[in-house]
Sequence to fold (106 residues):
Amino acid sequence: MAQEVNDSNFDEVVLNAGKPAVVDFWAEWCGPCKAIGPMIEETSKEYEGKAIIGKVDVDSNPETAMKYGIRNIPTILFIKGGQVVDKQVGAVPKASLVAMLNKHLS
Fold:
């Protein structure tokens, strides 16, 4: 299951994880966010132990969303070594998401 990430645990869960992270910035009211939600959950199961898959609710966690300049949702950030290495704005097919993630696993 994708890990719920918030303003207070973002550094610990994502930046200091020692693994690549995929962070989905979303909101309850966002239709496209709900559409990719199941794909994020599937990916979290498939990459368990290899990558951190997290979700940040932008309405509940404005600090983190602001820090990373999230203006549109869904936005998915790919973070490795504490740095954003890739970004996807808008809903995409799972294959695109997985391809981006695989690029950063080595």
Strands lie at 3-5, 21-26, 52-57, 75-80, 83-89. The chain has four helices and five strands. The domain at 3-103 is CATH 3.40.30.10 (Glutaredoxin).
